[in-house]
What we know:
Distance between the termini: 42 Å
CATH architecture of the largest domain: 3-Layer(aba) Sandwich
Number of strands: 9
Number of domains: 3
Radius of gyration: 23 Å
CATH topology of the largest domain: Rossmann fold
Structural class: alpha/beta
Helix content: 40-55%
Amino acid sequence: MAVGGPFMASRLTGWASAARPLLAGEVPSYWGGTLLFDPRPKEDPRDLFDREEELKALRSGINYPVTLLLGLRRSGKSSIVKVLMRQEDALWVYLDMRKFEGRAYITYRDLVQELEGAINSWPERLRQAFRGLRGVRLAGVEVRLSWGPGDRAEISDVLERLSEVAEEEGRRPVVVFDESQELRRLKGYDLLYPIAYAYDNLRVRFIFTGSEVGMVYRFLRLNDPGSPLYGRAVTEINVGPFSRGLSLEFLRRGFEEVGMKVPEAEVEEAYDSLGGIPGWLTYYGFYYMQLRDHREALNKTISTGVELVRQEFRGFLVGREAARERYYTIMEACREGCTWSDVKRALEAREGARVDDKQVTLLIRNLVDASFLTREGDLYRPADVLIRRAFQRQGGSETTHSLRI
């Protein structure tokens, strides 16, 4: 895909000419203008590297009721959404579900309070439109949604009012659930019913992003005849890793922005060690700017990434504690690739007993659905390079116990 353009080039030229060598640990003084190596999600379309096709597809997707934006962790999904939010004059409701990662469950109260916060980010005149709605009160200029029994705000009512307000404003109403796989932890309330109601009757559009692709589908239950969303058409957009060529170009462009000349061999080694996940490449560039040393930046990126993966895996295990050792055994067995039979043998060797075939299939499926493993024909592999490293003993000295901390 084409990257940049005249406006991008002018920004790069301006920054490069003003750049000076950074001291160790120093962050650029011009960080206020977003950079490729800014580890935060991008919001400026000029900084969205080679995601034009995905952005175009998402812009088209919000013409329809439901769009899924799916891809591995740190592939840039949130950046694509935030850039579109900046470009499109829609009535946006952005709900970040990442705050619930690692939680055993989410309550109706949690969900309503997130919705409340999003509505309160609107101008006061729009918030006033919710006055008089059942379960809604205005405390000063802020909207308060009741979540208790008897007088709670119903999400279908809130969506209906949102649709009405947007129509009056001549704008499109869009609700974003970022990392929507966390909604599968919602207890005591079926969110699919108000979504299905909005799908059939309202102008509201929904975007569901997800890093755990299979878990998003489990939550939406699109292929389950008992699901309120069964039979509804959705738009699906997949956000993949960068190719080798694009990864190298991303790193070159990022260093150009800060006026740094980095040897090509170092850029290539960074890709060979980290793969094409934009988030890992961004961390490497960010740490290089701070440390001014390739080896230190690469090692810090790997150690940070491995710890993030392990933290995310511990979150995956919440509610699955009984099978904890089995999941670790599978990930260790699949570091370099494995078949279903390899997994079964590894589990039975560890436990010294027969493991039911259905259990083996279920355990593997859960890891694939959570995007820790990916399937390539009959082989299962870690979904990215640093997931493999997270379950790899260094020099044979790392114990199985240390992987489980």
